[in-house]
Amino acid sequence: MDKLKDVLLTATREAGKIILHYFNGDFKIDHKEGVNNLVTEVDHLAEKKIIEVITASYPSHSIIGEESGEFIQVSDYQWVIDPIDGTVNFAHAIPICCVSIGVLYNGSVIMGAVFNPMMNELFFAEKGKGATLNDRPIKVSSKSDFKTAFLVTGFPYKWPENTLEHPVKVFERMVLEGLPIRRLGSAAIDLCWVACGRFDGFWEYNLSAWDVAAGYIILLEAGGTITDFDGQIGNVYDKQTLATNGLIHRDMLNVISRRESQLL
């Protein structure tokens, strides 16, 4: 596992160097699905470097990258890569973005790293060994009073189908609770900032595996709780993500599930 960790951290740091080099500079910006779903040439450069580092040591491992797609191998290991989580922030020179890489074994996340090179913050976790920020142990907050909770959320570019209500309705209910809520623009950072106690809870619809794989294990290893909006423990492929310090989890579930039809 030491080699796996070394490769993961090397890939993360090398991609971080690329991001930092181009930050607030000139680079090409394109659009994916939807006019505001951006991708830059830096995303591609960073992902290429990550894949190069991984395949140099583990050529038989499967890889799924946000920009490159999936490289399917017959392997128990899968690397899930987001070269820049928070690309819109990066494209506008807002330093809340990061490299996010998770390692799965037989479908379960066993290791993850999230690196914001502009803030020089490297989060890491290995299953069963706790979570760290720049090599120092981290843990979730001890906040148990939901009325004083500090929350963070995000909004998808495309509203999820088959939901009982618009996601803004849930946001509205949280706001009406009188809670301070932030929207940073990077789900990986949101999860890590819950993991280190800066926020007490996070929720978002329609995330992809590369958005949450690394943050998932970091949050859990820091003592947090992560489920879908029905309170069911799932995996990184779920389209509903609720992550908290565990102490306010039930309160957040209650607000999320308190639909308009139940209020009439």
Explain the overall architecture.
There is one protein chain. The protein is of the alpha+beta class and 264 residues long. It folds into two domains: 2-138, Fructose-1,6-Bisphosphatase, Chain A, domain 1 (2-Layer Sandwich); 146-263, D-Maltodextrin-Binding Protein, domain 2 (3-Layer(aba) Sandwich), CATH 3.40.190.80. Helices cover 33% and strands 26% of the residues. It has eight helices and 15 strands. The chain has helices at residues 2-22, 41-57, 87-91, 167-176, 187-195, 209-221, 249-257, 260-263; strands spanning 29-31, 38-40, 62-65, 69-71, 77-85, 98-105, 108-116, 121-126, 131-133, 136-138, 151-153, 181-182, 201-205, 225-227, 240-244. Strands 4-3-5-6-7-8-9-10 form an eight-stranded mixed sheet, sandwiched between helices. A five-stranded mixed sheet has the order 12-11-13-15-14, with helices on both faces. A hairpin with a 3-residue loop joins strand 3 (62-65) and strand 4. Helix 1 (2-22) runs antiparallel to helix 2 (41-57) and helix 5 packs parallel to helix 6 (209-221). The longest helix has 21 residues, at 2-22. The radius of gyration is 18 Å and the shape is globular. The N and C termini lie far apart (54 Å). Mean pLDDT is 90; it is low at 260-264.
